[in-house]
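User: Can you help me understand a structure? I only have the sequence.
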Amino acid sequence: KNFTLLKMATAGHYSPENENFCRYFRLVNETAAKPLRKILENNANARPLPVHTFLLCYKAKMQILFNKGVIQQHQFDKMYPKTGTFSIENLDISLLCVILTNICNVSPKGKAAYEDIRKYRNELCHNPVIALPRLDYYSNFSKVHNAIKVLLKECQDMTFEAEIENEIKNIDERPVSISAVMNLFKEFLFTQDSEMAHTFSERIRQL
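Assistant: Let's start by predicting it. Here is the structure, written out as C-alpha cells:
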C-alpha cells in the first residue's frame, strides 16, 4: 500500500491539501518528538546516566503504569527491550509524554506544551481525511510550532534550538519529499497498535 501511494504521489496524483497533510504529519510525528527526546536526555545527563540506564532506574514504576494500562506492551518493550539494544529514537510522542510526566523534571509550561502536542498528534491520527485545507494547515502548523518553541526553551540548548527551527522552516517551505514522508508513515504504522495501524493504513491508501 505504501508503494502504491508512492507511485501515485511521484506521478503527481495528489492535491495541495494532501501536500499540506504530509507537511503537518512530519511536523507532528517527526519534529515534535525531538525536543521531547532532548528533555529526556537532559534529565538523564543530570544524574549523569545514559538514557537506557536512567530508564532502568524507574523500571518498577513503569511496570506499575504498564499494569494499569497506561503503557502498552509494545511501548514497555521499547524502553526495556528483551532482545537487541535500546534506542531513544524508538520512543514515540505518546510514550515520551508518559515518561516525562512520571520521571522527569519539566516546568508547568513545558508540560502544557507536550500535552498539547500529544493532543494534536491524536487528532491528526484519528483524522478521517488525509488532507488539510490551506487555512487549517496554517492554523494547525502554527499551534504545533508554538508548542515546540516552548519545549525548545525547556531544552536550554541554543544550537539544538536553531537546528529544530531550521527543520521546521524547511518542512513548511521546501518541496515535499514524498519518499521521506512515506518512510515516516511506515515507521508510524509499525509503532502503533494493530487497530490504529489498520485504520491509518486504509486512509493512506485513499490518498
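Now, to help you interpret it: The two ends are 10 Å apart (CA to CA). DSSP finds twelve helices and no strands in the chain. Let me know which part you'd like to focus on.
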